[in-house]
Amino acid sequence: MVTTASWSAQLGSLATFQREAGRAWRQHKSPIPVVVGNAGLAWGRGAVDSAALPGPSKVEGDDRAPAGVFLLRFVFGYAQPQTVHIRMPYIALSENIVAIDDSRSRYYNQVVDRSKIKDSDWQSAEKMMLGDNRYKWGVFVEHNVPPKPGAGSCIFVHVWKNSQTTTSGCTALPENDLVKIIHWLDPARHPLLVQLPRPVYKELQIAWSLPELPL
Q: Is the pTM of this model over 0.70?
């Protein structure tokens, strides 16, 4: 659960919760600091329809992280698969792994191995092997799936550069905290990212059956 002070806020906090069927939410870890998009948050396309709700809507290149509720599908990173012991599906990054942000491509909003695609049709893509640790560990956020052209693409939760460097639309946090979260995530328990400005969170808390905001 990520909350920020407002739609335009660049800094936020992340707390984790879990629950058994029919039980109340139980906080798993205390809040930790995160950074989000350079321009804050905007409604994304996720597991809950937010199209009729007031607030900005995310578009490609707006430097906003998506607000809403999103499935977490897989983990990626620089480590080789045989050294990674987690429950989530894992993709080992290489020079051939790219994230497609060209909305005209049939591979839009996908992370692909370009060496295995003969008919590449994209004009722009992000290399996933960076010169720093931002993608040393990351989680793919299922935003805009199936993809609507221009609604935003390739959203991750990943390692931050530092506490003041924001992102182009992802959510970033300290490496040690992210690694703990990755080891905690279990696909059998249907992990979700809930990301909202705090005033909006309070308005939707009961309707969306969300946990109490941490103090």
A: yes
